Amino acid sequence: MKLLVINGPNLNMLGIREKELYGAKDYAALCAFIQQTAEELQAEVDIYQSNHEGDLVDCIQNAYGKVDGIVINPAAYTHTSVAILDALKAVSIPACEVHLTDVNAREDFRKISYVRLACEKTFSGYGFEGYAMAMRHLCSK
After folding, report:
1. Residue 95 forms beta bridges with which residues?
2. What pairing do the DSSP bridges indicate for beta strands 2-7 and 44-49?
3. Are 115 and 97 in contact (CB under 8 A)?
4. Whole-model pTM above 0.90?
5. Rounded to an integer, what distance in angstroms lies between the CA atom of residue 59 and that of residue 17?
6. SS3 string of 23-59?
7. 101-137, pLDDT tens digit by residue?
8. What domains sit in the chain, N to C, each tagged with a CATH number?
9. Each residue of 13-50: pLDDT tens digit?
10. Residue 77 in 3-state DSSP?
């Protein structure tokens, strides 16, 4: 099983930004957690992060025919990006949406997710563990 984990804007700032929401662990710790989870699942994983919408679309498109599942935390693009939604729909790779915080308990605009329309499941509010939950879901298929 080969997985692609995609992280959107500002996730590279973990450990620096809004620690009361996102905690003190940094992006390197998240990547190490994802790698460890992949090892436990005996899966390969590639991790990608960008602050640019078009780069995220390119990454999804480039995954076509190369990966078995996508875990995506589109971050702020969750609520705005039809382009990311369309890219996920175009490649038809099973995908799960992840959010570190419970977006449904935050501002009203965060309750809207375009990306969710192309995902099998959403894991929201579980911190790093949400990534493991998504990876386990995709590997169980």
Report:
1. 70
2. parallel
3. yes
4. yes
5. 25
6. CCCCHHHHHHHHHHHHHHHCCEEEEEECCCHHHHHHH
7. 888 877 777 778 999 999 999 999 999 999 999 999 9
8. 2-139 (3.40.50.9100)
9. 998 876 777 677 999 999 999 999 999 999 999 999 99
10. helix
